[in-house]
Each structure stands twice: as structure tokens, then as C-alpha cells.
Design a protein that fits this description.
globular, Jelly Rolls, 3 helices, Cupin type-2 domain-containing protein, alpha+beta
């Protein structure tokens, strides 16, 4: 028999990770490790470098804004109401387009990589999202923590690649 967990706003974990605001709607603990779901507000300029997940599949559903994704060699525009699946083992990244922020639901399965976000975040009550990328020292720390969770960083953030291509 399985049980379901309902979370209400006061119960949800909110935190700031690399300038983005995360609200965890379903945690790995809630789901026995099967998945994690976070609502994320991502500032333009705060996108992660291109990377590969060794263990997790990821699905992103855009709630507000427009995002361009790189999945392998594909470039895909995703707008509010659309989603994209980013399978494990495939290089991917994204760029926030046409607005200062984008808002999305991110689903990770299994949910184990969620811990890397917690390990590198600050409770939202103690911080405000920052614009732009993390400092070189912060970026080094982020990459080390995520590497321990099976994430390999493989290139610059997608906005840097898009800017070079004009």
C-alpha cells in the first residue's frame, strides 16, 4: 500500500540556489526517493553550465516566460504551457529568453540529485535571489557538490553560446 503526502504552503521548503528561487513541492523524502518536484524562478544570467546527469531524468514544464534548451545537438524553444524531457546521459542546458526571469516546474527522477541543491542553497528567508552567475569560488563549490551527485559539467552556460552565435 502506498501513501500520499499533501504539502501546504507553510510546509514547503523554499531556498535560493545559485540565484534561483526554489520551492520544493515534492521531495525525495516525500516520495521514497522516486522523484522530486520544484517550482523554480530562474533569473536570466543565472543559468547553469551545460551538463550531463548520470542518474536522473529531468522534465521541465515552463509556467512563465520563454526558455531555449540545448538537448544533445538540438536547440528547442519552450514557452509557458510547454515542457521538455531531458534524459540522463544527454548533455543539456537552457537559457532564459525575452524577460528578466522564467518560472518552471522541474521534475527529477529518481529524486536523489535534489540533495545537491539543498547542499548548495540558502533558506529563502535568509537570502534574496541574485542576478547573474555565481562568483568563480561559488561556481567551483557548486561543481564539486554536483559532481558528487553524478553531474558532469561539460561546457559554458547556454546563454554564452547563444551570444557567440549572434
Amino acid at each position: 500500500m502506498t501513501t500520499t503526502t499533501a504539502t501546504t504552503a507553510p510546509d514547503r521548503r523554499t531556498e535560493i540556489h545559485a540565484g534561483s528561487h526554489f520551492t520544493w513541492h515534492a521531495t525525495s523524502d516525500d516520495t521514497g526517493g522516486r522523484l522530486s518536484v520544484a517550482e523554480v524562478t530562474i533569473p536570466a544570467g543565472g543559468e547553469p553550465p551545460l551538463h550531463i546527469h548520470a542518474r536522473e531524468d529531468e522534465m521541465i514544464y515552463v509556467l512563465e516566460g520563454r526558455m531555449t534548451f540545448q538537448r544533445g545537438m538540438e536547440r528547442i524553444d519552450v514557452t509557458a504551457g510547454e515542457s521538455i524531457v531531458l534524459p540522463r546521459g544527454i548533455q543539456h542546458g537552457f537559457a532564459v529568453r525575452d524577460s528578466p526571469t522564467a518560472r518552471a516546474l522541474i521534475l527529477l527522477t529518481p529524486g536523489t540529485m535534489e540533495q545537491a541543491f539543498h547542499d548548495t542553497a540558502t533558506p529563502a528567508s535568509d537570502a534574496t535571489p541574485s542576478a547573474g552567475p555565481p562568483s568563480p569560488e561559488e561556481a567551483e563549490h557548486l561543481m564539486a557538490v554536483f559532481a558528487r551527485h553524478g553531474v558532469e559539467f561539460t561546457g559554458p552556460p547556454l546563454p554564452a553560446l547563444l551570444a557567440r552565435q549572434g
